Structures are given as C-alpha cells and as structure tokens.
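DM from R.C. (forwarded with permission)

"hey, sorry to bug you on a friday — could you get me a structure for this? deadline for the figure draft is monday and I only need the backbone to look sensible"
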Amino acid sequence: MNTASHPEQGSTAFVILISCVATIGGFLFGFDSGVINGTIDGLQTAFQSDTAGTGFSVSSMLLGCAAGAFFAGRLGDKYGRRTVLIVASLFFIVSAWGSGIAGSTTEFVFYRIIGGLAVGAASVMAPAYISEVAPARFRGMLTSIQQIAIITGLTAAFLSNYLLAETAGGSRAEFWGGYETWRWMFWMELVPASIFFFALLAIPESPRYLVVSGKTEQAGSVLARLYGRAVAATKVQEINDSLATDHHKPRLADLIDKKKGGLRVIVWVGIGLAVLQQFVGINVVFYYGAVLWQAAGFSEGDALAINVISGSISIAACFITFFFVDKIGRKPLLWFGSAGMAISLALVAFAFAGAPVDVDTGNLELSDNAALLALIAANAYVFLFNLSWGPVMWIMLGEMFPNQIRGSGLAVAGLAQWLANFLVTATFPMLLVGIGLSLTYGIYTLFAALSVVFVLKMVNETKGRELEQMEG
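My reply, with the result:
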C-alpha cells in the first residue's frame, strides 16, 4: 500500500487508511446481517418453511458468528489479526454466492453459517486491529468507524433489497437470469467482499500481535510507519513490559484470576457488555424489520422503506459518536444510551399494546396516532442505540483488555455476544406469535433499564489510556 508515511514522524493518514480497510469487514458484517431482512418471504416460499423454520434460517448465521468470534480471537493470537481477516473475506465471498444459489433449507443454512464465521471473525478482529494500530488520542474515533461501517452495510443491504424488490415486483419475483429476486439480494455482497480481500493484502500486521509473537523487529518497522522512529523503540518496550513476566504466548488460561479463581472481573465486564448489547433487542429491528412493520400493519414496500430510514438515522447517530467519543468518553455515552433506550422501548411497547388484530392477516391494526408513536419511538431507539451501545461496546471490547489477554478476552466476549444475538433472533418469531409485539418489546425494555445499572456499577472509563495501561 503506497502512502505518504514518514518513518521519522509516522503518518496519521496511514493509520486512518489501514483502519478504514479493516472496517470494510464491518460493512460486510452489516450487509451480511441485514440482507436477510428482505428475503424472508422469498425463503418461506422457496423452501416451504414455517415460523420456527424461518426463525432458524434467519438465525443460523449467528451460530457461525459465535464460533467465528471465538476462534478468531484465539487464531488471531496465533496467526495474526490481518491473516484472520483475509480468511474471513474469502468466507464472505463463498457465503454470498452459496446463499443465493442454495436449493434447499439445509444448503442455505450451510452457506449462512459460513457467512456467520466470517461475520463473527470480522466483528472481533476489525476493532482489535484498529485499537492496536491507532494512537490513544483518537483510538475511539477510529474504532467507532467500525459501527458506522456496520450500519452503512445494513443500510446498503436494506436499500439494495428495496431497489431490487421494487424493480422486480417483489422478493419472490423472477429477476435477471431467471433467478428470483431474493437470490440477487445475496449476490450483491460479492462486490464489497472482493474489495475487502484485495485491500487486506496491502495492509501491515498489527504491531502488538508482532511483539506478542516475538517478532519485535517487524513490530518496530510497522510502529515506525505509524508513529515515527522516535516513538517506535519506546513503544515496543512498553508492549513487552505489559505482557506476562515469563513472556508465554497468550492462552485462555490467562483469563483466570490466579488469586481468587474463576474468570477475571474484566472478562465478566466484557461478557456483560456483549450480552446486554443484544438483549435490548436491536437486531430484531435489523433482521426482522420488514416482518415487524408488516405485523404492525404496514405494507411490504412501506416496511422496506422504513428500514432504509432507520439505517440512515443509525448512520447519523454513529457520526455523532465518531466526533465525541474521545471527548465525552465511553461510559457517559453508554449510560445515557441505556436510559434513552429504556424510555423509547417502553413507548414502542405502549404503542403496540391493546391494538386489535386483523383476523385475516394476523397483523395489528394500529390507529394513526399509535402507528406514528411506534414509528417515532422505534427510530428514536435505533438512534440512541447507535449513539451509544452500538459503537461503544465494540470500542471497549477492542481496547479494555490488557495486551496479554486481548485475543482470549475478545474470543469469550465475542462468543457471548453472538450467542445472545442468536437467542434474541431465534425467539422473536415465536414471541411475536406467542405473546405479541407489546410484551416482546417490554422484555427488551427491562434489559435496557438493567444496562443502566450495569454501566454505572461495573464499567470503567478507557478514554485516553494507552493499551499498555489497561488493567484486568
């Protein structure tokens, strides 16, 4: 990668450039997660699946995500952050093609799990890579680009789905080459996935991984390009000093508190952040947005259009975080977002409460006022999530663990995050039928309220601290 980097001074532009390459993984994370949103009708028709079957088809990717996040954290310690991201980019390509060409539920689930492995790997390795190449003074800003990329990918998938469905006349309609439109929705991902693969070939490995692996000369060379020669030698020594005294390779056993037994407190905090981010129900909006709004009485076209609006609002929120996370800090954004989400989710639940059900369609018949309240409150919730827990959880997971346990800590927290995601996503269709939208959103409201307490009691601020200063 040719950049105007100066070994004597380092290059901020180079740091930003390679961070942006890593965040393409976030874009694909978002696209691959969101593309399913507009394909559900097509999947049900093509594979003749019921509610539970559809729920598993949608959530099957998340099983791959859980495995991908866990093994990426461990493999990232062994083979490098960049190497794991390159493998993930290839998995994105395979999954995009296979999901579209699948001829059965089994085949479709297989390719979605492959995509899940890629998403899970990208979800933990991209923020880890960015945290390990970015200076502390704007590390939060650069890592928050990951969430901007995720939401941009989601929005791109929503927009792509909407345009394809509008052009073809619906997700089940025949489109180019005689293939149904929903298949083309998956194939759109092949373009960014290919770009990601080739861009990754041109970026350097994480310098902190290189030091941990004993490749100090290579680490010094990368650090000189990032921060300048004067800083590089000192930084190599600081990283070395932050590792285990016997300099053993990172391992899962490092997560155990040697004095008290059990997992270190910092690992539990990481797990708590990861799980609560999902238990507020955000991915119900992202994965089932079209179903949700149709259940609330909107048409398929209106529901897909609302998804695009929600995605645009999310991007706006992420940009606010981008500019303020290194000034305000992580913790204030988290508790403010938690409180705001609890209120907005409660309003969504209230709007859905008591609405009559259409006996023919099974959808709610909202009054004009209730529909307006639901739409405003739901988008306020999406805005607040992407102002706070969306980007900040990933920022903190990428930076809060000490160098010795970053890969292992990310493996465990990433596994917890995706298992929680799977639980929420797989249960939503059943909750929708069993207890209705109002009570379902009441559950998410409860977890948003609990997250306020968790942040205030358990989370420590990491703003402005070097990774070598992280304790746990």
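R.C.: lifesaver. The domain at 12-469 is CATH 1.20.1250.20 (Growth Hormone; Chain: A;).
me: no worries. The radius of gyration is 22 Å.
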